[in-house]
Design goal:
The complex is a heterodimer of chains A (228) and B (660). Chain A is built from seven helices and eight strands, in the order αααββαββαβααβββ. With 228 residues, chain A is of the alpha+beta class. Chain A folds into three domains: 4-63, Arc Repressor Mutant, subunit A (Orthogonal Bundle), CATH 1.10.10; 65-128; 134-223. In chain A, helix 5 crosses helix 6. The chains are: A alpha+beta (228), B alpha/beta (660). The interface between A and B is medium-sized, with 33 and 36 residues.
Chain lengths: 228, 660
């Protein structure tokens, strides 16, 4: 009957040759199952190792002759290499995708930073001037804020119609159309805003509420972004 | 003192402040103050950079008051194409071609890619060729002779950064037989690249043939002909390795456009100017359709920035009725900011310098003969914040008083002087004139050539080699649509050939051949520009006067073949150009043959009612000599509630039972 010690002994004695299972149980095929259990235990205890169906003593594995195993190792290496290559190329592909996405995100992020800078810039300008410039009785910053809000919410594309602007200003300040006209003309002269001429007054039913100037109707306000 | 006076007179003769409109951004002469509209310029360039990075297409609107420098800015942008690494193309969409948007865009692209400003190193098409060659050789590893190997290596891995056209130059330095061999490989590989880059399964055999023709100068001319005419003769088709009868329909045109955008080494700036034309001639639905078309183009292509420019008022008006989804898509805008008074002075300085240099004179005072302070005061007092207004002021001062407003004829002559005739562009110009002035309706909206209905007349305009389809459509308009006259307009230099099926058809159906001279052709082309510039306010004329002038000229053009009454009929009807077919008035129906008509209609009615047939060709029920009865038959069939009528592009009419 095979015991743990006998099995271990047989394996250790085989040295670097190692032993197969059938070499251990020989003709006693009835002990096949018992042997399997012993091998499992020895393996768990770390006393033996299995390679290519041969069993070796744990310490003897490192002494296995290199030459003999070269072909097998080489083959394993090539196979591993191919698997790895496949794995890597998949990995690279997915990384490439991620990089592409990241680039997109970075770009998006950059433009968001740019936009944030615009606001920060505005805040600095706002903070820099403790006494806000006034045109007549109205604060220029208030007008700019009204302009920005209209422009943003109504998608005017930096050309806000004067009549709509006037209505909005009136919600905040008690002021007449004529006074607003005067203020806007003044801001245009200072080149803070640009009042665009409306060529076909018939295009807009409220064109009579644009600013009349030397026979022209100034109808759109564009707040100048550049600094002189 | 006298010397100065003489100098001023010489200066005045050059009319330095008379012309204030940029009519062609591709033109070579442009006097520019680059700080004007700088922020709009930067915005366009930034958008292009974004397109380049993401490869995703986008839309930008450029708006400003008339004279604020939109066209001028476009010309400046064009000059920066190589520095900023993009390709510039102009697209001039037409009302009459609204059913064939992609074919006409394709033509505009190829035209634009052939244009080259003297400051640019190479034509845009050569950059595309270079990129195709580079892409095509990316996986080419075959062993060649050392000298060839070096050139190929230089294309695949250039030692220094080069502009793409250089790859094409290297390719052309290869021996002819190697070029020939590589072209096939390049076309195949480039096609593969297009497939990889687009999510669409495009890239059939024809696309390979087209890519190959782009990089083969011997075939390129044939390709250009294919692009402008839509189809080729059997011989030419063979040259390109295309199947006989291959023609560019809208789907194919779109696939070619997509591929070219993908193969372009740089983003493409596609500019549409003079949008005012659409505002004038389209109703709200038409405008929505137009913008949807443009959006679809951008949504389904890569690498493009679509730049639409028009007066601020136009987009502002459109935004009030656009559905939300479109509003959002057309919300990216650059508004021109107006110029400072100092920049106004700068305009005077650069214009003076430019014209005095022409006289070979260098002056100490850059403002001479103007007074700087006086100019500045006038610019400020009159709030002259657009370049055109400053130029007008200078002209007024120079001429001693406000010069008289130019008349319609004078403006027309000005345009005519610079007009270049092109037989393909002529077709579009005449078509657009007929649509604009006489409410002409395009009878085959997706067709390659224009066959229009003006009142009771069919007019075909075709300067191509294959005009059989146009003659057939004209004949069919006479027979099936019941029009009473058909005219075939064609350049006199390329008359219709004798002994062809077309001439037979022309004679048999009494189609009138209207040949025009080069001069007359140029005139009509200039006329269309005059209307367009007046609509966009680039020319300060009363539009009514211009339209009247144009109508007279057009009537004059047709006077030998059409009476005034016939042309006016269409105006009285007030038809929109999109309305395809209006049934005739009851009284107009010819009484002769009414019995036959009734019999045919009854037969169709009973067969469809009994459910014997669900769909049938109308031609099944009528013999050839009864084709003149088609309008009457249709008129009666339309009244039958369970029957639908559909007319195909080839003129074939189908009857179908309405689903219950």
């Amino acid at each position: 009957m095979l015991t743990k010690d006998i099995v271990l002994k047989k394996i250790l004695e085989s040295g670097t040759k190692g032993k197969t299972r059938s070499e251990i149980y020989g003709k006693k095929t009835s002990e096949k199952e018992a042997l399997e259990k012993i091998i499992d235990e020895l393996k768990k205890e770390g006393k033996i190792l299995e390679k290519n169906k041969r069993l070796y003593g744990a310490e003897q594995v490192s002494q296995l002759p290199v030459k003999k195993e070269e072909v097998g190792e080489g083959f394993v290496k090539m196979q591993d290499f191919l698997t790895l290559k496949e794995l890597f190329s998949k990995e690279i592909e997915s990384l490439k995708k991620e990089v592409k996405e990241l680039r997109g995100l970075i770009y998006q992020f950059k433009s968001e930073i740019d936009r944030a800078y615009d606001y920060i810039n505005d805040i600095f300008i706002y903070l820099k001037e403790p006494s806000h410039e006034k045109v007549g009785s109205v604060d220029v910053d208030l007008l700019k804020m009204i302009y920005d809000n209209l422009n943003e919410t109504r998608h005017f594309g930096d050309s806000v119609p004067v009549p709509i602007f006037k209505d909005e200003v009136k919600k905040h300040v008690s002021i007449s159309d004529e006074e607003i006209d005067k203020i806007l003309l003044d801001l245009d002269s200072k080149e803070i805003i640009y009042l665009q001429t409306l060529d076909n007054p018939g295009d807009f039913s409220d064109s009579d509420r644009g600013i009349k100037f030397q026979g022209r109707i100034l109808y759109f306000i564009t707040w100048t972004k550049r600094e002189y | 003192m006298d010397e100065k006076r003489v100098l001023i007179e010489e200066f005045k003769k050059l009319q330095p402040y008379k012309d204030n409109v940029i009519k062609d951004p591709f033109g070579n002469e442009i006097i520019d103050v680059e700080s004007i509209n700088k922020s709009a310029f930067d915005k366009v360039i930034n958008e292009l950079v974004a397109v380049k990075k993401s490869k995703e297409s986008s839309i930008l609107i450029l708006q400003g008051e008339p004279g604020s420098g939109k066209s001028h800015l476009l010309a400046r942008i064009y000059r920066y194409a190589e520095i900023e690494r993009f390709l510039f193309a102009l697209y001039n969409p037409l009302l009459v071609k609204s059913g064939a948007t992609y074919s006409s865009l394709l033509r505009s692209l190829f035209d634009s890619f052939e244009r080259k400003h003297s400051e640019l190193k190479s034509k845009p098409i050569n950059h595309i060729r270079g990129e195709i060659v580079k892409i095509g050789l990316r996986n080419y590893n075959a062993q060649e002779e050392p000298r060839i190997q070096v050139l190929i290596k230089e294309i695949k891995n250039p030692r220094k950064t080069v502009v793409p056209y250089a790859f094409y130059e290297s390719f052309r330095a290869l021996p002819a037989n190697i070029q020939e061999k590589l072209r096939k490989i390049i076309a195949e590989e480039a096609l593969q690249y297009v497939r990889e880059e687009t999510e669409f399964k495009i890239g059939k055999k024809y696309l390979k043939a087209i890519i190959e023709a782009i990089i083969d100068e011997n075939k390129y001319l044939v390709l250009r002909e294919l692009i402008s005419e839509g189809s080729l003769t059997r011989e030419d088709a063979e040259k390109l390795n295309l199947t006989t009868g291959f023609s560019i329909n809208e789907d194919i045109a779109f696939e070619i456009i997509q591929s070219i955008f993908v193969l372009s080494p740089f983003p493409i700036l596609l500019s549409i100017d003079q949008i005012e034309h659409f505002d004038r001639h389209l109703d709200k639905d038409g405008i929505i359709n137009f913008l949807e078309d443009l959006y679809n183009l951008v949504a389904n292509t890569k690498n493009v920035l679509l730049l639409l420019s028009a007066q601020t008022a136009i987009f502002n008006k459109w935004r009030s009725f656009l559905p939300e989804y479109l509003k959002d898509r057309f919300s990216n805008t650059a508004s021109l900011e107006g110029m400072s008074s100092e920049e106004g002075l700068e305009i005077i300085k650069v214009r003076n310098k430019y014209f005095f240099e022409k006289l070979g004179v260098k002056l100490d005072d850059p403002y001479f003969p103007f007074d700087k302070d006086d100019l500045l005061k006038k610019i400020k007092d009159n709030k002259l914040r657009s370049p055109r207004k400053v130029i007008e002021l200078a002209n007024a001062i120079l001429e001693g008083a406000l010069p008289e407003k130019k008349g319609v004829e004078e403006e027309f002559e000005n345009i005519l002087k610079k007009q270049i005739y092109n037989k393909d562009d002529f077709e579009d110009s005449l078509g657009e004139l007929l649509a604009t002035l006489f409410n002409a309706v395009n009878l085959s909206p997706r067709g390659k050539k224009l066959v229009l209905r003006v009142g009771e007349i069919a007019i075909g305009i075709d300067n191509s080699k294959n005009y059989y389809s146009t003659t057939r459509k004209l004949a069919s308009a006479l027979r099936k649509k019941g029009l009473n006259k058909a005219i075939f307009v064609r350049d006199e230099k390329i008359p219709v050939r004798e002994g062809t099926k077309s001439i037979e058809l022309i004679r048999k159906n009494n189609i009138i051949l209207k040949y025009y001279t080069l001069e007359a052709g140029k005139k009509l082309m200039a006329l269309q520009k005059l209307i367009s510039y007046t609509e966009s306010k680039d020319i300060d004329l009363d539009l009514k006067d211009v339209l009247k002038f144009a109508m007279d000229l057009l009537k004059n053009f047709f006077e030998d073949v059409v009476s005034l009454e016939e042309l006016n009929k269409s105006i009285d009807k007030q038809e929109g150009f999109k309305q395809i077919h209006k049934p005739k008035e009851e009284s107009q129906i010819i009484t002769k043959g009414n019995k036959t008509v009734a019999e045919i209609v009854e037969r169709i009615r009973s067969e469809f009612e009994e459910g014997k047939i669900q769909v049938a060709r109308l031609s099944q029920y009528i013999s050839k000599d009864q084709s003149s009865l088609v309008p009457e038959i249709l008129k009666l069939l339309e009244k039958i509630p369970f029957i639908m009528i559909r007319e195909l592009e080839n003129g074939e009419i189908f009857i179908a039972k309405k689903p219950s």
